[in-house]
Amino acid sequence: MSSALHPWLDTPLREALSHQQAHALLVQGAQDRGPLDFSIALARAWLCETPARQRPGGLACGRCGGCHLVDERSHPDLRLLVPESLRAAAGLPADEAGESGSAKTRKPSREIKVDAVRAALEFIGLTPSRAGLKVLLIHPAEELNLVAANALLKTLEEPPGPMRFVLGCGAPQALLPTLRSRCQSVVLPRPDREAALAWLQAQGLQDAAIVLDACGGEPLRALEQAREGRDAEAWRRFPSQVMQGDGAGLAGWPLPVLVEALQRLCEDRLRQALGLPARSFPQLEPLKAPVATARMIATLTETAAWLRTRAAQADHPWSAPLAIEALLQRTRSALDARSRPL
Ligand SMILES: [Zn+2]
């Protein structure tokens, strides 16, 4: 099991360890920023058995028995509470308990099951067997249902023994406010651009900057997109494909990816209308003639809002070609300055 943390998470990890005051941390960050890896790295540092004075910044040593057991996901004082769908990402084996042998045929569940919460509560009641404390990691915490969250709340307020909690969370607003307020927040920042580019280049990505910008500066998403065929060349072409309404050229794109890219394109046009350079798509042709800025901004804002409603439904099985056509048509007309001359 690799224990290397993505390089852009190094500094946030050191900061979280040095500023930690509460026994419960809430790690906030979109999936793309690696909140799960980050939370595991925190747990590893807390469970490291090398004396703290020998570990700069309180980071895990990576060599002791405690670190080794965390890396193997077999540390008796660490419990990872994650849904089935994230077990592999958390480095855990598939759930042996399975459900009546159907585990292979159905989609892995995204919920944190009540049984797992119950087992976690039992774990909290045990005395630490190896380290001086126990760690319960819950990710994503917004998947806890009301009953489970309330059951945990009590132990979070008054843990029965030496206990640390780390809750990972992509949507803190979906969390019970009482749960949120019991935790110290750690917000994962947007990855540092230089570190992200260096990492992408080390993964063998060509023209990494083009892909990174098109993917909102999120390196993990950029790599995933490139591996799915949306490489620098594809992103370079994208603005002109939209301006030409080239639905056929974009036919293979998953709708959520397309919707998000169109949102970024609208945002870039807004920036241009305000006299700023494009951020995600530097290849987007600048506005040539002066335009009715106020009207253009209003239309782009409306279109961006409409795209957000489309994004919410993008997981649904629409008729893809028709959906792509509709998306392109509306976005294109909002981006086109000629329809709104001065
Ligand atoms: Zn260690």
List keywords for this structure.
13 helices; DNA-directed DNA polymerase activity; nucleotidyltransferase; alpha/beta; 7% strand; 2 domains; binds zinc ion; 45% helix
CATH superfamily assignment of the largest domain?
Answer: P-loop containing nucleotide triphosphate hydrolases
The percent range for strand residues is: 5-15%
* Count of helical regions: 13
Q: Spans of 5+ residues with little confidence (pLDDT < 50)?
A: 98-103
CATH top level class name of the largest domain: Alpha Beta
Give, in order, the helices and strands.
Answer: HEHHEHEHEHEHHHHHHH
Shape: elongated
- By DSSP, the count of extended strands is 5
Number of domains: 2
Average pLDDT over all residues: 88
Q: Helical amount among residues, as a percent range?
A: 40-55%
> End-to-end distance, in Å?
60 Å
Major β-sheet annotation: 5 strands, parallel
* CATH fold call of the largest domain: Rossmann fold
CATH architecture of the largest domain, please?
A: 3-Layer(aba) Sandwich
Bound molecule kinds, no repeats: zinc ion
User: Structural class, please?
Assistant: alpha/beta
User: Compute the gyration radius: what is it?
Assistant: 23 Å
State the strand order across the main sheet.
2-3-4-1-5
Keywords: Nucleotidyltransferase, Transferase
EC number: 2.7.7.7
Organism: Sphaerotilus sulfidivorans
Protein name: DNA polymerase-3 subunit delta
